[in-house]
Every structure is written in C-alpha cells, then in structure tokens.
Amino acid sequence: MSSVIDLLKSHRSIRKFTDQAIEPELMEELFKAGQAAATSSFLQGSTVIRVSKPETREELARLAGNQPYVAKAAEFMIFCADLKRAGNYCEAYGKPFEGDFTEHFIIATVDVALMAQSLVTAAESVGLGICYIGGIRNNPGPVSELLQLPKGVYPVFGLCLGYPDQDPEIKPRLPLSVIVKRECYDEEGDKQAIEEYDDRIREYYRTRTGGGHGISWSEQVATLLSEKSRPHMKGFLEDKGFKFR
Amino acid sequence: MSSVIDLLKSHRSIRKFTDQAIEPELMEELFKAGQAAATSSFLQGSTVIRVSKPETREELARLAGNQPYVAKAAEFMIFCADLKRAGNYCEAYGKPFEGDFTEHFIIATVDVALMAQSLVTAAESVGLGICYIGGIRNNPGPVSELLQLPKGVYPVFGLCLGYPDQDPEIKPRLPLSVIVKRECYDEEGDKQAIEEYDDRIREYYRTRTGGGHGISWSEQVATLLSEKSRPHMKGFLEDKGFKFR
Q: Deepest in the core among A151, B139, B150, B205, taking most CB within 10 A?
C-alpha cells in the first residue's frame, strides 16, 4: 500500500546497538518530526530530557531495572509529561492554577506518547532501532531527582535510539478481529481467536529461546494484571502535583 | 533526511473531508500498521470501535461537543484503553485481578496513543487526513453506553479519517530548545523563547482568521490549566474500574 505502512508493520524493539553515533542534524530532524504530532488543546505537554553523561546513563540503566542498553545505546532520552511549562503562565495571566485534574494528566500523557511515537517512526525510517523503557517507572522518584524534574513534570518512559546490532523477529500481534470492533464492544469470537493466538505466541517464544519459555499471551497479561504493578506511582504522582481530581 | 520525516513534519489536523470512502483493504492495512507499534509488557491494551451507523455518528458528534466532522468523515473510530481483555484471563489462570493501579492506567493509555499515532502516520502516508477527537471525553459515560463499553475499558479519544477537502497551514510548534533539554530539566532561556513563539502564534491566528483571534500560546494553555477540566473523568474512570490505586 505504501512503504511507510511497510515500515510501520516491520517494527520490533532493538536492545543491542552498534557504537555508531547519530548525527546532530538527524537528531534535530527526529525531534521536529516528533513535535509535529497532534497535541491536545495545543498544550504541547511534552519535555524530552536527552541524557548523554555516561554516569547518568549508568544510573538510569540501574534504576530502570538493570537494562544495559539504556547505558549503551547511542542516544537515550526520557519523555516527560509537562504541565509546569504551561502552568507557569497561569499567574502571569491572573488565572488560578487548576491543572491537577485527572483530565490534565490524560492530556499530557497522551501528548507525550504521540510525540514519542512520531519520533520513533522518523528514527526507524532512517534505519535506527528503538526500545521504549517503561522500566524508569520502577523508580520514578530517583529518576526525577537525577534529572531535576520539578513539580508538574513526570517521567512517562525512556527511549533508546541507535543503529541496530541485532535483527530480531517481529512479534506477532493479536488478530485484528479482537482489536477492532464494529459499532460496539463485542467479545464474540475473541476467546477462540485468542486461543489460536496463544499457540502462535508459545511457538514464537519456543523458537526464540530454544525450548524454554513457551508462555502464551493470555498467561503473560493475566500475570501483569494480577500484580500490584508499581504501587508507588500514585503517591509519586501526587507528590509531583498530579492530584487525580 | 527521509520522506517519512517530511511526511511527519507536514502533519496538520483535517476537519473537512471529501465524500470519498476508504477501501476496506486499506483500512485493514492501517489497523495493522497501528497494531505493530510498541506495547508495554506486551499488554496490547487497545480496542478500537469503528463506528459507521449514521445515527451513532450523529450522536457521537453531539456528545463530542458538536463537532460535525465526527459524523461526516469517511471513517470515525474510538480508541479505548482496554484492561478487560487481559483481565478476563486472571481467573482462568487462578490469579487475583489487581489491574486497577495507576500504573495499569498509564500502561493502557500509552498503548492506545502509540497505536493511534502509528495508524495516523500510515493514513497520512496514503494521502488521508486525520483529526483526533478528545471531545468524546466531554461525555465519557454516554459515549461508553452508546458503544457498550464494559468495565475495564474507557474511551481515550476518537479519530476522524478521510480524504482532505481543505489544506490548512501547519501550526508552528514550540522552539526545540524549550522542548528538548540536555542532561536535566532546565528552564534557562525558555521565557524569552516562548515570548518570541507567542508572537508567531498570535500572527498565525491573525492571518488565519482575518484579524480577530490573535491569542498567544501561553495565554491559551494558561486558560486550559486554570479550568477544572472535565472534572467528571475521575468518577467516570473509577466507575469503569480504574481505581488509581
């Protein structure tokens, strides 16, 4: 249909990078491509902290749950949802600051994700590989301290960028019939479709790891949702001024 | 640098569409391109409700704050964060369901945004125009009822798709220096850069509307953050099982 569609469909996370640096001019283009993504109410609620210092990178790799590529990738950056930049102007215009509603949290978080995903597509279009690092939310407090993130700003995820030094398979996705519904939410047929998909995923892991880790999709995600996942996030975000009003 | 980067940088929202339909084969490719985006912990926490019935589209246009293109675009879909699909399997594997933490909410919301943005890029690459519709969060309860969204699923935003019948200007973004920081959060120089940007935005609105609406970026976003924005979202989400624990 289009080479861009083929590019998008060929995405896989890269966790091993060559030593090749990314040209400054290219980095600038990637940021501009990301920035051009849609932004809710024109907020532009993203701030990207680009981290180059080796000691900070090492520390972030550790805080993200020991992910060595955070230290080793040509570029690593942390995407932050930022309500401070806009909030700074409330006083200037004689308005009260009320930007701590759940809705504001959604707007800023979605803004960040849209920007990041456009930057990712731009990067992949020139042969770079990427890996999102949700693991920085393991330790959002120390990460925020390290990057001196003020109130009104929180680290949503990290992103590794670099030239790939591996060529992993594309991970199969759920059947479209399960993801895309017509007119209303309807689970008919999903159980059967997911059963077949589970078989594919077991097989995917078997061929990748040589026999050991043949876990299905449904079992993985059931585990995810049976865990008190990062229970510190709520308190951390409230401290940062996201009050979920 | 790459035609994909040029494509991404040329994004603008389209709110007027021709009557031309989108071929079913192309729609399927767009969904697959979206689905190939990264997904946190392999959750795949997105469900897309594709709405075609004219009466439902009219109702959604109304619920989104009277946005006529919601009814008129060739395609309209609602992107939902979905923790139900995965949560269904907790019982099957004998695990407790704990998927109502703030972290789970972030994971699912980010998943949706990444998928949508890849779908958007795919669409724009074949000449389609798009408009995100955050306005559906004006009335998330009625929208959810209309689409029969169960507990564990919430509508994040809508998306209009169609062939453009207008050619709006690209809206200037904040200077890169304001958005991208080195090593840590640092506002030095931002005030001045935003002042200059405010002038550009005033000018952008002046030339677009013929003199009337010369509002700056900082004033717009200060207003956004001085409003108790969609204060119903918290209660709505809690009803839907997102407990922000």
A: B139
Element (H, E) at B231: none
Q: Is the ipTM of this complex over 0.90?
A: yes
* Pair B45, B111: CB distance under 8 Å: yes
Q: Are residues A180 and A161 in the same domain?
A: no
pLDDT at A169 over 70: yes
Integer Cα distance of A204 and A32 in angstroms: 36
- Mean pLDDT over residues A230-235, rounded? 97
Q: Which chain A residues are within 8 Å of B36, Cβ to Cβ?
A: 8-11, 170, 173
Which residues does chain B have within 8 Å of residue A10's beta carbon, measured at their own beta carbons?
A: 36
Res. B196: pLDDT tops 70:
yes
Please report residues of A whose CB lies closer than 8 A to that of B121: 4, 8, 117-118, 121
**B161, β-bridge pairs:** B75, B130
Give the range of the structural domain holding residue A207, as residue numbers without chain letter. 176-214
Say whether A211 sits in a helix, a strand or coil. Answer: coil
Mean pLDDT of A90-113: 97
The tally of domains found in chain A comes to 2
Q: State whether A222 and B183 contact (CB < 8 Å).
A: no
